[in-house]
Each structure stands twice: as structure tokens, then as C-alpha cells.
Amino acid sequence: MNTRILTCLFASALVSSSLIAQEPPAPRGPHGMGGGHRNPMEMFQKLAGNPEVLKNAGATDQQIEALKTFLKEQEVKVVDLRSAAEKAQVTLRQTEMESKSDEAAVLKAFDAAAVARTALARQEVVGRIRVKAILGEDVLKKLHANRPNMKPGADQGKDKKGDRPKREGKPKRVGPPPADK
Questions:
Q1: Which residues does 148 contact at the CB level (< 8 Å), separation at least 6?
Q2: Which of the following CATH numbers is that of domain 40-145: 1.20.120, 1.10.357, 2.60.40, 1.10.10?
Q3: pTM for the model
Q4: Other beta carbons within 10 Å of 48
Q5: Given 59, 100, 120, 132, which residue has the most CB atoms within 10 angstroms?
């Protein structure tokens, strides 16, 4: 009996110490270089606010106005769908936490959350298709060409071979402080 208790205590101490010892998230780099996945519609919203870039890529005034109108409608739809997906996720979590909840109720809440997430993802895909239809292939190709980080192979930069420029003038990245012994 005492051996089991000691084993459980040792295991929990080991797990908790490994969680504490994890390295903090690395800095994200200069302003505007944040990591993570971004919604592609954000880029088009920024472009709609800067019609000069669109005109330089060959977009007409009618295309720019159609894009602005569509993006306003799209933003409201996505906010509504995101809200519905989050509410469905909360309902699922609460249903799972209830001690009386049965399998059928949890699965029903799961299905509702899945439908809401799918509707959100579908609307984002529809948005990209509509933007492509509004601007046309030629304008999108020119926009792609004008943004160096959007060119094919941009994610396979020099740092893959080790000849990336040094971090001049920037503080050296450091790990977590040493643990007290």
C-alpha cells in the first residue's frame, strides 16, 4: 500500500516538474512578423483599405468597390459563425463536465460543435473563392509577385542551409533560468 502511494507521489512530482521546466515561448521577431496561422481574408481586408496596391496590380475601381462590399459582408458572417462555433464548443464542454450527462447528450453536443466549425471553415473557403472571382487571376498573380514572402518557395529560405544572416543589433535569445538546486 505504501509503495503505491509513494509511486503515485513520485509520478505526479515528475510530471509536474517536467511541466514547470518547459522553455517559455520564443520571441516573435520584429513587428509584423508574428508567428502562427493567419486568416487569408485579413490580407484582403488590408488590401481593400489600400486601393493603390490593388490598382498597381491592375484592379479596376469596380473590382475594388466590389471587394470592399464583399469583405464587409464576409466579416459579419464570419463573426457570427465564429461566435456560433465557440458557443457550441462551450456547450459541448459543459455537457461533458456534467456528472449526469449521458453519451447521447455528449454526442449531440459534439455533432452541433462539428457542424458549427464546418460552417465557419466553409464560409472562409467561399470567401477566398469569391475574392478570386472578384479580382481575377491576373490581379492575384501580380499581388503575389509584389509580395516577396508570398512567392513560391519563400518558406524554404536561406536559413534551411545555415547561411542565414546573423541577428545583428538584437538581443541574444536565452532559455529559461537555471533551476535552483
A1: 154
A2: 1.20.120
A3: 0.57
A4: 19
A5: 59
